[in-house]
Amino acid sequence: MQTELLAEARRQAEICNACRYCEGYCSVFPALHAERAFSDGDLTQLANLCHNCRGCYYACQYTAPHEFELNLPQALANVRQDSWEEFAFPQSAARAFQKSGVMIAVATVLGFALLFWAAQALASMGGDGFYAVLSHNAMVAIFLPAFLFPLASLGLSLRRYWRATGGERLRLSDLVQAFGAAANMRNLSGGHGDGCNFEDEDRFTQARRAVHQAVMYGFLLCFASTSVATVMHYGFDIPAPYGLLSLPKLLGLSGGVLLVVGCFEMIRLKLKSDRHLGAAHAWGGEIGFIGLLGFVALSGLLLYGLGETAAMPALLVLHLGAVLAFFLLTPFTKMAHGFYRLAALTRDAQRVRKTTP
């Protein structure tokens, strides 16, 4: 991990520890104030616990032009981004995506779409709906390894993170607390529950919390849709296509709408925000990932709406290309931050448990 980033984060954390004005802002500050000295692992944990709501920056009296020049959101964002790249497997892929995320996302989607177009020779000519373009067996053969690879890669990455931050044996109570904090995005509500200053220093808003929830729950609904369809296909011998009022369709459509709205609203908020308060070199990677996830959802909705038209084959290969690109790039994109954040919240729950009488 880059020593200069850790050194700057350590300097700012020590000043914040002496001031303590922002103690009630989010989970970062109780964890920060519990330490007297900060190891590299402590700083990595604090960085991944930070949700970059930026309220502490706008409240701070020691930001530039003060000689201390504090910018804790940026210092932690730099360490956080560097930790994701350091722990990623393989590291080179993570660094490349953060540098040129938009270009890599577009090229990967188009490349896989062309491969799917060529793979139509494998299609089951007697299939219904999408399976008339690409057979069910071909889809399984392609997407099952693509689904397992990011799980294995993220597993290795999180294991490295857990060791680096001094994580201990897990307890159910730690996981319950961490999942609860992640489910309601508590750390994006601000110290007083009014929201954060991500868009404007003088305006508290819950917008960023709301779009994060839309993206998270939209993704979970889409995942649930795929899972239910898999059980119906293999467990009950009920193959696709499914009707509008079927459970896979209801879950998938609602999840897709939430994802589209959440992703495009998140891009809008990022374009309005001050880049100086985040990891500037990761801007392309963040926009690339959000755009890719939004396109996966949008192409899926268009595919459903135009599935009976001549546009269906072209839409299908684009959608499948986007889904495959999303899966394979997940360990190296901003998608990984959700897993790291959950690990950081779990680690913090351990800290709270050990320090609570």
From TrEMBL:
<feature type="transmembrane region" description="Helical">
    <location>
        <begin position="287"/>
        <end position="306"/>
    </location>
</feature>
<dbReference type="InterPro" id="IPR012830">
    <property type="entry name" value="Citrate_utilization_prot_B"/>
</dbReference>
<keyword id="KW-1133">Transmembrane helix</keyword>
<keyword id="KW-0472">Membrane</keyword>
<protein>
    <submittedName>
        <fullName>Tricarballylate utilization 4Fe-4S protein TcuB</fullName>
    </submittedName>
</protein>
<feature type="transmembrane region" description="Helical">
    <location>
        <begin position="242"/>
        <end position="267"/>
    </location>
</feature>
<feature type="transmembrane region" description="Helical">
    <location>
        <begin position="101"/>
        <end position="119"/>
    </location>
</feature>
<keyword id="KW-0812">Transmembrane</keyword>
<feature type="transmembrane region" description="Helical">
    <location>
        <begin position="139"/>
        <end position="162"/>
    </location>
</feature>
<dbReference type="InterPro" id="IPR036197">
    <property type="entry name" value="NarG-like_sf"/>
</dbReference>
<feature type="transmembrane region" description="Helical">
    <location>
        <begin position="312"/>
        <end position="332"/>
    </location>
</feature>
<feature type="transmembrane region" description="Helical">
    <location>
        <begin position="214"/>
        <end position="236"/>
    </location>
</feature>
